[in-house]
Amino acid sequence: MPIALITGGHTGIGYSCARHLASHFKWDLLLAGRSPARMKEAAAELRRDFGIEVTCVDLDTSSLASVRKAAAHVTGLMDNGEIGRLDALLCNAGGRFDGPVAFSEDGYEVTFATNCLGHFLLVDLLKDCIADNGRVLFTASGTHDPDTADGRMVGAAVEPDATVLAGIGKDGNAPISAGKRYTTSKLCNVLNAYELHRRLRASGRPVSSIAFDPGLVSGTGFLRGMPMAVQWLSRTAFLNWVFRRRGITMGSLDFSGASLARLAADPEFADASGKYFQSKDGKLLETRSSTLSYDETRAARLWNQMDELAGLHRKENEISTRRQAKS
Ligand SMILES: NC(=O)c1ccc[n+]([C@@H]2O[C@H](COP(=O)([O-])OP(=O)(O)OC[C@H]3O[C@@H](n4cnc5c(N)ncnc54)[C@H](OP(=O)(O)O)[C@@H]3O)[C@@H](O)[C@H]2O)c1
After folding, report:
1. Ligand 1: which of 6, 13, 256 to mutate, most ligand atoms within 8 Å of CB?
2. FRET partner for 289 with CA separation of 20 to 30 A, picked from 72, 78, 240, 327?
3. CB 8 near ligand 1, within 6 Å
4. Has residue 190 been placed in a domain?
5. DSSP type of residue 250
6. Residue 243: inside a domain, yes or no?
């Protein structure tokens, strides 16, 4: 049976996607996240409702040590023959972190650490565990584009410089708003998806890298850091009407989850590498991302900076090379 790993697959868009992968495509799943009890519940529901195999993997994407441990867990399952190679790796976990700037245990600004750097490292450590014709998906956001109503509503993304982003608000560096920290992290996701695509093509590996915008989806845990009144308002028909009038890209939990599942598993998207898709008003459309996201120089710089920040040193590269040689 094909298998996908989904970060943040026990809630929101990730869980909706998990249910579609299980029901429509009959895929087995690895749910990776930092809330073991809720992951266990979601796994039990998926097994009960669809009869698939589900394994939970502890993963805090904001912590590089946790990412390394999770990757070792997955590699171990593969080496023991408990699971096959991954048919899809969905980098979906993430959020917006309101309030004063906070830092990960590695000392990096937490939005950047959670949404970008952890996934960058995870993909790197698991790249040889992905099956031929497998796919890597990044749940980005239309808010990364400052030329859209989505981007203007949340706050224009700033320069995607990983070294600066990791140190925002630290050692006298000026903080930026939570909205901008979020939109910039999503710009980094899109740049990273395209750069991964180029590197995969250059290396000859038949693996796809795809970016996805689920649209504005209410009913997830996304606004959990916001006041209760804002969370309540976001679910009202009135606010949805206002957003629509302002030209905001609107998704729904079911359709956006199904769209992410299709991008991961549907043969229709076998040639989607290096592209950006949006779930909008019940349609899954290939569309253009922001102008800046196509800047290959910035993407390469971001990649090299994240490589440095994640401490991807020689030892890990040697292990990876040995695994490749063995397979
Ligand atoms: N909802 C929207 O309107 C919208 C729009 C565009 C893009 N997105 C993106 O869609 C993705 C899913 O969000 P959602 O709306 O479904 O919200 P959600 O229900 O809050 O899901 C976010 C998931 O990410 C996990 N997560 C957060 N920080 C983590 C960490 N440090 N380590 C591991 N897992 C972590 C959460 O786990 P816990 O349960 O443990 O917190 C949760 O499972 C996110 O990347 C978000 O940025 C959402």
Report:
1. 13
2. 240
3. yes
4. yes
5. B
6. no
